[in-house]
Amino acid sequence: MAHTLDNEFINPNSQIKSPPDKDPMLPCLFSVEQVKKETHDTFTFYLSPCENKISFPFQPGQFNMLYIFGNGEVPISISGNPSDEDRLVHTVRLVGPVTRAMKNLKRGDVLGVRGPFGNSWPVYEAIGNDVIVVAGGIGLAPLRPVLYKLLSQRDKYGKIVLLYGTRTPEDILFKRELEQLRSRFDLEVHVTVDRAQQSWKGNVGVVTRLIHKATFDPLNSIAVVCGPEVMMRFTALELEKHGVPSDRIYISMERNMKCAIGFCGHCQLGQTFICKDGPVFRYDFMHTYLTKREI
Amino acid sequence: MTKLTINLGDKATIKSSDIILLFNALRSAGYSVIGPTIREGTIVYEELTSIDDLPVGWTDEQEGGSYRLKKRSDNAFFGYNVGPHSWKKFLFPPSLRLWNARKNGNNFQILPENNDTPKFAFIGVRACELHAMAVQDKVFMNGTYIDPVYKSRREHAFIVAVNCGQAGNTCFCTSMKTGPKVTSGYDLSLTEIIQDEIHYFLVEVGSEIGAEILNQIPHESAENKDIESADRIVEETAKNMGRTLDTNNLKELLYNNYDNPRWDDVANRCLSCSNCTMVCPTCFCTTVEDVTDLKGENSERWRKWDSCFTVDFSYIHGGSIRSTVRSRYRQWLTHKLATWIDQFGSSGCVGCGRCITWCPVAIDLTEEVSIIRLSNNNSESLSSDKSDFREKHNH
Q1: CB B328 within 8 A of CB B272
Q2: Is B286 in the A-facing interface, judged by CB distances under 8 Å?
């Protein structure tokens, strides 16, 4: 690696942050409006601020630190609609003590929110281009705000393709919404699962196998990819094979985070802090790290 | 003794017996005076109650994994090298309560901390340590977010620097261009001069507040011979560095050597104990801990120093990113000497040598780097040999 830490190079969107006017380690209180079970291990939480009329603007790809009283705090990407500033939406997979405690939250319960943190998916850079959205598993959650954004300004973009892979048909996230998206004429949607019973009539296999089904102009496309690291790596390789230049592919990285403001050091990946330089990075910058173990 | 009006940039001398007056002046200006003192066989930084707390007549002998106090033949106040503590423990507290929360049914309240800013006067800050503070300033005060506790403590601190009169065996500040001469970032800087029966300090004034304090104590304007004596002391120190580190293309060297077999070698010795990160004056990583009372009604959030040498440090769902010692040592060294430059515009190492002295198995980063450099050069010459061979073969 001989790159310098040039934000333009990592991701041109990294300058969107503005300094907060309050202590960034102090959470704001939000109350749970609604909990929606998505699959056996994923839930979507709809939150509204406890203090009247705090609007919560965010960019697609940004995340919040969610605090459950006495349990701890975890970084969770925002999965809601960026044009809805009054309500905060997070889709969470139950993987650890804090997210498991989140499962028990009911309507009216209060949790702490710090954020939004991080940079955004290149929704503005993508204007005038085809957009390929590739999601693996829970990786669809941080990409859903991109879809909302693109579809809210549909005429500004060329073709829009959504490729989604997950483990089984039961693990399909936002199922109803995906069905609605698939019914649109201005959007191409392909879904695949790793394994399924005979009753499943859809695609079986990894998400990279969907790329050849999609129609897009590789040299005038922006690809946004989110999922496990291995999935993002192979998706990027496959996109490159189909002619998408590596500097037009964006991925979102994940690391341990304690502060989300660049102080705690936990989220370092090479010369970057995922929380402040990312989480979204251009693949041509990140790819050397993806091929090295334990960086 | 005549009292003169002294200004920023001036040089003066004070008698060694008058150092107590410097303490008194700082104390009456409302500072809590922090400086070197002996605890459990080491010279550490603590709040000093009197001038008698200083390690007068003591020095230390340091080597990889070894630190011993030794009596000096004189009564030097600052005749030692840096010990296990650094000033970061005052500016960046090892443990800090961020806020506490009180439960109320399904709701709760978050109560912010009222952190009063202590006003510290640091006595005996070395050149490498001033550079370490400048490095942490970039981390905590130069980004989008600012650490309010660090900032207020840092801005209120009064710094009495000391030019090093000797170099330790694990010192390499000349390699890192961070010493031994104090050049900026101080209010007053002292050079301790002991010649036969004469014992005094050359004082340089680095700030207006420094001038104000110095004007309260007896001093004389420095003569050329005093300045020359002080310069000679620092020059002598610079010649006696116990270690060296070749920083030429160091960043690129480490970026090109993520797969060097030397990481396996060091992993076989490294205990992953995190001592190096605790004693390092620039290491800044923290974790947060939530502490709840037995009833589950009150919860506190604490920030504590953390280390990239712990397995938990890189834990995300499913496991730790850096589960091997090899990867954790590589992360620490590569961050300190290479990625830090991309992140903050300077090296994270100031050449103080603490990580060498306080490593229980005497791992020496200067040695690790030189071996990586050597093997890198060998493999480069090997690959150029090969290409020579191929070229020749093709012709």
Answers
A1: yes
A2: yes
Nearest-angstrom CA–CA distance, B145 and B140: 8
Tell me which chain A residues have a C-beta less than 8 angstroms from the C-beta of B260.
Answer: none
State how far residue A243 is from chain B, nearest Cα, in angstroms: 29
Judge whether B361 is closer than 8 Å to chain A, CB to CB.
no
Contact B284 A29 (CB under 8 A): no
Tell me, what's the pLDDT at A137? 97
Domain assignment of residue B360, given as a range: 250-382
Closest-CA distance, B237 to chain A, in angstroms, reads 34
CA distance A225 to A132: 8
Query: Which chain A residue is nearest to residue B141, measuring alpha carbons?
Result: A263
Average pLDDT over residues A51-60: 84
Chain B residues within 8 A of A262 when measuring between CB atoms: 143-145
- Interchain proximity B287–A266, CB inside 8 Å: yes
B337 within a domain of the structure (yes/no) = yes
B37 lies in the same domain as B73: yes
Q: Which of B108, B145, B331 faces A19 most closely, judged by CB atoms?
A: B145
Give how many domains chain A has, as a whole number: 2
Torsion of CA B21, B23, B25, B30, to 10 degrees: -160
Cα–Cα distance measured from residue A75 to residue A216, given in angstroms and rounded to the nearest whole number: 33
Residue B1 maps to a domain = no
Side-chain-facing half-sphere of B144: CA atoms under 13 Å: 18
**Pair type for strands A249-252 and A221-226:** parallel
- The answer, yes or no, to whether residue B154 has pLDDT greater than 70, is yes
End-to-end CA distance of chain B: 85
Question: What's phi and psi for B203, nearest 5 deg?
Answer: -115, 130
Q: Give a yes or no: residue B245 inside a domain.
A: no
**Strand B198-205, strand B220-221: pairing:** unpaired
Q: What is the CATH number of the domain that holds A154?
A: 3.40.50.80
Indicate whether B161 belongs to any domain. Answer: yes
Q: What angle (nearest 5°) sits at the alpha carbon of residue A199, between those of residues A198 and A202? A: 90
Q: Could you tell me the end-to-end alpha-carbon distance of chain A, in angstroms, rounded to an integer? A: 12
State the smallest CA–CA distance between residue A258 and chain B in angstroms. Answer: 6
Hey, is the C-beta of B317 within 8 angstroms of any chain A C-beta?
Answer: yes
Looking at the structure, do residues A45 and A137 belong to the same domain, yes or no? no
CB–CB contact B299 A270 (8 Å): no
Q: What is the reported pLDDT for A12? A: 44
- 3 state DSSP class of B285: coil
Residues A47 and A104 occupy one common structural domain: yes
Task: Name beta bridge partners: A282.
Answer: A250
On whether both A156 and A285 belong to a single domain, the answer is: yes
- Domain match, A134 and A113 both: no
C-beta of residue B172 within 8 angstroms of C-beta of residue B349: no
Express each pLDDT in B62-105 by its tens digit. 999 999 999 999 999 999 999 999 999 999 999 999 999 999 98
pLDDT tens digits for B239-283? 999 999 999 999 999 999 999 999 999 999 999 999 999 999 999
Closest approach of chain B CAs to the CA of A245, in angstroms? 24
Q: How many helices (H) and strands (E) does chain B have?
A: 14, 16
Whether residues A17 and A111 fall in one domain: yes
Q: Do B314 and A266 touch (CB under 8 A)?
A: yes
